[in-house]
Write a structure and sequence with these properties.
Rossmann fold; 14% strand; globular
Length: 134
């Protein structure tokens, strides 16, 4: 299986954090799976670290290095991925989801036919079959 990690899953995996759900850990460690991380995650963590270095201690560079050290494959943001944003739909009664980093990663997963591993309770509202909530 080819899996794109949501940002918080990537951070927890790199840190080997106890917050990483067991199901996610098993999927990431399964040698049969190819694990991807998005440039959007590095971008997101860089911005959050710059705004709140006291709360977000990991920089984007550290996340990138950790992902690379773990053998994860970088998924750059392509114009085709941006086009896939228009194919994402949420029911009108779904809670608002204003996170552009999450949206581009869901679009990337859809465009590249990857599974998207997330712990974010708002992501499954996209009702896409490739989203794996943990």
């Amino acid at each position: 299986m080819r899996i794109l990690l949501d940002t918080h899953i990537a951070v927890w995996a790199v840190l080997n954090a106890p917050k990483l759900p067991d199901k996610a850990r098993q999927m990431i460690l399964d040698e049969e799976n190819e694990i991807f991380y998005s440039t959007a995650s590095v971008w997101e963590i860089t911005i959050k670290h710059m705004l709140h270095p006291d709360k977000i201690r990991m920089s984007g560079n550290i996340l990138e290095k950790g992902c690379e050290d773990n053998g994860y494959i970088v998924l750059p943001i392509l114009n085709d991925h941006v086009s896939y944003l228009e194919t994402l739909h949420r029911p009108q009664n779904a809670p608002k989801h204003n996170d552009p980093f999450d949206r581009i990663m869901v679009a990337q997963a859809k465009a590249e036919k990857l599974m998207f591993l997330t712990h974010d309770s708002l992501i499954p509202y996209y009702k896409e079959p490739f989203i794996i909530p943990v």
